[in-house]
Amino acid sequence: MAEVAVALVVRQSIRESYERLCAHETGLRMGEDPESVHQARVATRRLRSDLRTFEPFVDEHWAADLAADLRWIGSELGDLRDIEVLRDRLRAHSAWLPAAEAEAARRVVRRLDADREAARFDLLSMLAQPRWTHVRDKLADAAGLPPFTDDAFAPASKALRKVVRARWKKVGRAVRRAGDKPTDDALHRIRVRAKRCRYAAEACESVYGKRARRLARSMAEVQDVLGEHHDAVVASAWLAKTAHECSPTEAYAIGMLAQIEHGCATTARAEFRALWKRVDTERVRGWL
């Protein structure tokens, strides 16, 4: 059986993300299901990651132009999604408080509803712009036949190993640079690199099978733990900023929320240290 070319792997990965984005466009417009925003954002992030991962195999100028469009879309989706995640997180944690403090905390958290509506308005404005239709058309073309370089027609099993290895090395380098007492920003950088490594491994599953799946699962675990840490840090920052605008009763309640978020961040840090020892092994990375 003939060896699969890199081009087929790249095209399939782009097509899957494009189809995911299209599948959730109606949900974006309706605004009733936060999952539509999440899935559309994932699709956009995967596409941007693929353009970086598969950089040697697609036309440079085409990729740079499409990446700029995807940053535009991702910014609007990200603004809305971040607000929804923060609001839902703080709502859930408010329920952990005693009744009086829980009600005070919920009053404060309701301020995020107005922020969400403003972000929804901006997203709908984006979807109404001709640029959105233009980008969708470009993505449709890319899902069919991206502008490949000559290198894209090399055997995938040989050519793609090095791009996945490069993604893995960036994760390891970020962990080493972070040191034993990583800053919040350092942990966030590790998370971003783990996510890109995961996307690269998932895109190559058809070529490397269970080895790529194992790496992807490991990076997903890192991403989840550090995602919890990042969400806790973001929530803590919002609570600290908002405390100055609250009544004493509300400030006391959100101070209790801030303690919860601090505990979540601390737990996530400890979980990451233990997790990385299980991930950075020959079993996970030995095939690269």
Q: How many domains comprise the coordinates?
A: 1
Largest sheet: none
Distance between the termini: 24 Å
Specify the structural class. mainly alpha
Beta-strand proportion: under 5%
In CATH, the topology is named: CHAD domain
The residue fraction in helices comes out at over 70%
How would you summarize this macromolecular structure in one to three sentences?
The chain is mostly helical and 288 residues long. It is 83% helix and 0% strand. It is flat and about 65 Å long.
Explain what you see.
This protein has about 290 residues and is mainly α. The protein has a single domain, classed as CHAD domain (Alpha solenoid), CATH 1.40.20.10. Helices cover about 85% and strands about 0% of the residues. The protein has 13 helices and no strands. It has helices at about 5-25, 25-30, 35-55, 60-95, 100-110, 110-125, 130-145, 155-180, 185-205, 205-210, 210-245, 250-280, 280-285. The longest helix has about 35 residues, at about 60-95. It is flat. The model has no long low-confidence stretch (mean pLDDT about 95).
Give the secondary structure arrangement, pairings included.
Elements: H1 6-23, H2 25-30, H3 34-53, H4 60-94, H5 99-109, H6 111-127, H7 130-144, H8 156-178, H9 184-203, H10 205-208, H11 210-243, H12 248-279, H13 282-285
Helix pairs in contact: 1-3, 1-7, 3-4, 3-9, 4-5, 4-6, 4-7, 5-12, 8-9, 9-11, 11-12
